[in-house]
Amino acid sequence: MRHIAIIGSGPAGYYSAEAAQKKFGDDVAVDIIDRLPVPFGLIRTGVAPDHQSIKAVSRRYEKTNLGDNVRFVGNVTVGEDVSVGELQELYDAVVLATGAPNDRVLDIPGSDLKGVIGSAAFVGWYNGHPDFKDLDPPLDARSVAVIGNGNVALDVARILAKTEDEFAGSDIVGHALDGLKQSKVEKITFLGRRGPHQIAMTPKELGELGQLERAIPVVDAEDFPDLGDDAMLEPGMRKSVTHLRNFQIDEDGAQHKPIEIVFDFFAMPVEIRGDGKVEKLIVERTELDKDLRSIGTGERYELDCQMVISCIGYRTPPIEGVPYEHGRGRFANTDGRILPGLYCVGWARRGPSGTIGTNKPDGFAIVDIIAEDIGSGSNKEGRKGLDRLFDARDVKAVTFRDWKKIEEAEIARARDGSPREKFTDIADMIAARD
Prior knowledge:
It is a single chain. The chain is α/β, with parallel strands linked by helices. It folds into 2 domains: 2-101 and 316-433, 3-Layer(aba) Sandwich (Rossmann fold), CATH 3.40.50; 103-310, FAD/NAD(P)-binding domain (3-Layer(bba) Sandwich). It is built from 15 helices and 19 strands. The strands form 5 sheets. It has a 6-stranded mixed β-sheet with strand order 3-2-1-4-19-18, with helices on both faces. Helix 14 crosses helix 15 (426-433). The two termini are 33 Å apart.
């Protein structure tokens, strides 16, 4: 029998468990360990609440968990309730699938002012992550700067700009919806160091921005290269740039919706100023060198804003005793191998890149490597040893059956038209299980 522990119950963790089921059949026991009492990680607390079709992938993960050889072990903090070293003693393979839940630091003066928020915190707030339920973003802000030109930045702007009716069918949590209904936001500005041809925004998400009821996206025509240059782009990027071209300012500059979403390209934030809170952002104009890297021009200007949301990337949190690449924000590894018996997968392996689907081949690849390394397994205790350790420490793990009770309670408390109203407090989740 092979015993595998997977730390993290997001896409990378579940695809790895599915791969182990298919690779080893009944001759494997997989424990998926998560800090929260609820599974699915990024799908639950990272994917935008108005993208329910993407969240539906959790049904695939649920099928994986219904097999006898895969077990969800929630409400367990690795490093407190059990160490990585202890797991290595109990399991033939330990796979770190922790994702990259921490914001990359916005390293400019004034980034500690009130009103500067990382995207992980803001997304966690409107998605009901227990760590961020008390965030209280300053939604009385008239102007918001969103730093970044990727899909997370698009999510943030879209959520800020939507009307209450546009959230119908979503699972945005009640406290966020109530806050957004009182929002005073009139202008949202995307700041990107490079130009329209270098964005990391995908066509579908950009297209949604042009369909908002009360917001209009705006791009300055002077930021674009010649139209003929679009032909050099790969098809997906070409579609994205076509959306941007359709957002160009009308000749008279007239806007006809109460919220303006401005794309400010070739713009590098250099300082945030304010008396205890955000009041303005100092921005430096950039240009591209021959390698398409952005470099400052020395030309600076002020952007009045009362909230700054930084969407500049994520990092995997280090774990004591596990080799880590601080420059890349991921675990040090070679093709997923960290140390004998210790592996990583997904964003924890490659950094925050790719889509949810990218984690599927990644999960299957790491299981092939594990199979090569551990053979037919060993006489390690696996989950029996983990349960014995938990009994000794009075650790009360949450099972997948418990999670289904929590889910039923969330569905029962949903507002009209919403699939669920998530619990944002761990104690409430545990109470729903009991």
